[in-house]
Amino acid sequence: MTGTAENPEAQAQAQAAILMQALPHMLRYDDSIVVVKYGGHAMGDDKVGRDFARDMVLLEQSGVNPVVVHGGGPQIGAMLAKLGIKSEFSEGLRITDRATVEIVEMVLAGSINKQIVGFINAEGGRAIGLCGKDGNMVIAKKVHQPGQSVDLGFVGDPAKVDTTVLDQVLGRELIPVLAPIAQGEDGETYNVNADTFAGAIAGALKAKRLLFLTDVPGVLDQNKNIIKELRVDQIRALIADGTITGGMIPKVETCIYALEQGVEGVVILDGKTPHAVLVELLTDHGAGTLITR
Ligand SMILES: Nc1ncnc2c1ncn2[C@@H]1O[C@H](COP(=O)(O)OP(=O)(O)O)[C@@H](O)[C@H]1O
Ligand SMILES: CC(=O)N[C@@H](CCC(=O)OP(=O)(O)O)C(=O)O
């Protein structure tokens, strides 16, 4: 038995000491923008969703301006399977025909977006759910994969980002929650990879941090140990020697893009670890892999 459980005063002192440890970190991020990409694999069950929402509300209350960009790849896959629509990927991107894009928009901008908004509001925050179409925030252009003959259909990359709507929302105790759906100049709806969307938003907002919540502790070396810090040139070497593969390649490429656009640092971390975002931003320990220029 620790003394604190029997001694409420000592317990309160211990709690106050923990709060004080967070002060330098709160000051560091005060009034700055942190974009958090919440991946479909990191979403898990309702408890994980509620914990994530509480972290966002705590950040907002600490003076940080969080912007959530969510994915939902596994959830789209489950809905397409339920409807009997076959789905395939080419180099990590979902081949998206007209029937598929309707479902993608329904799942991302509809159910997942509103679920996250609901979780944040239930924890005392005020979230506002948007997608790239709102206020022409993101204009997409159709993706053509070099050297590939396959037509990806309605898959887009962010060609233009207009932050007017976000500028209105940020700093007013509202937490924007963004679904990676955008309109093209041709008026069509495009399915945008959530990592790419988050990178474009973080770049346009010149965010202090871009956090990728995924299903691994960070970038792992050949022995599966976490690499705590990486610079852009080291990333290129890790891709070249085969240490970074699969879904991690577009993720780290987005990191490089975001850093080039003026984001100060990008962190890849495990979204299923309780309070991963708070550990990263508000403790001395930190979490995941920090990538800087
Ligand atoms: N060096 C590496 N370190 C960590 N993960 C890696 C590495 N190389 C490949 N990966 C893979 O990348 C995956 C994360 O990418 P992805 O599945 O696209 O994530 P998300 O769905 O969260 O966007 C990991 O689950 C892992 O299988
Ligand atoms: C073009 C493309 O592949 N879009 C993704 C969008 C969702 C996403 O990226 O979700 P995660 O972050 O959970 O992977 C898709 O259709 O799955």
Automatic annotation (TrEMBL):
Keyword Kinase listed? The answer is yes
Under the heading Pfam families, the entry gives: AA_kinase
Residues forming the Aspartate/glutamate/uridylate kinase domain are 33-269
Query: Molecular function terms in GO for this entry?
Result: acetylglutamate kinase activity; ATP binding
Q: Where in the cell is it found?
A: Cytoplasm
Q: Which keywords label this protein?
A: Amino-acid biosynthesis, Arginine biosynthesis, ATP-binding, Cytoplasm, Kinase, Nucleotide-binding, Transferase
Catalysed reactions, as listed in the record = N-acetyl-L-glutamate + ATP = N-acetyl-L-glutamyl 5-phosphate + ADP
Quote the record's binding site residues for substrate.
Answer: 72-73, 94, 191
State the EC number(s).
2.7.2.8
Q: Which GO terms describe its cellular component?
A: cytoplasm
* Primary subcellular site in the record, as a coarse category: cytoplasm
Matches recorded under HAMAP family: ArgB
Q: Which NCBIfam families match?
A: argB
The text of the family note is:
Belongs to the acetylglutamate kinase family. ArgB subfamily.
Q: What does this protein do?
A: Catalyzes the ATP-dependent phosphorylation of N-acetyl-L-glutamate.
Q: What is this protein called?
A: Acetylglutamate kinase
Q: Which organism is it from?
A: Methylocapsa palsarum
Q: Which gene encodes it?
A: argB
